[in-house]
Amino acid sequence: MTMAPLPGAELVQKPLQLYRYLLRCCRQLPEENIRQHYRHAIRQSFKVHEDEDSPERIQQIIKRAVEDADWVMNKYKKQK
């Protein structure tokens, strides 16, 4: 079992909570250009999904985003 990139991942239930959580994850990344890349990707993803209204689909998106953040954080943690 992998650990969440930041404490509180299990508390993310709403899109705005996810957005804030992912931006906090970005602050942990090692270089500014990497942080900018992921901040941009997060914003773009939120724009793409902003009209999503299915609660089940929103929960799927949240689950996948937290898993992806975990992968990214572990990737850069190993490079240090």
TrEMBL record:
Residues 13-70 form the Complex 1 LYR protein domain. CDD domains: Complex1_LYR_LYRM9. Pfam families: Complex1_LYR (PF05347). InterPro entries: Complex1_LYR_dom (IPR008011), Complex1_LYR_LYRM9 (IPR045291), Complex_I_LYR (IPR052151). Signal peptide: none annotated. Belongs to the complex I LYR family. LYRM9 subfamily. This is LYR motif-containing protein 9. It comes from Alligator sinensis (Chinese alligator). The gene is LYRM9.
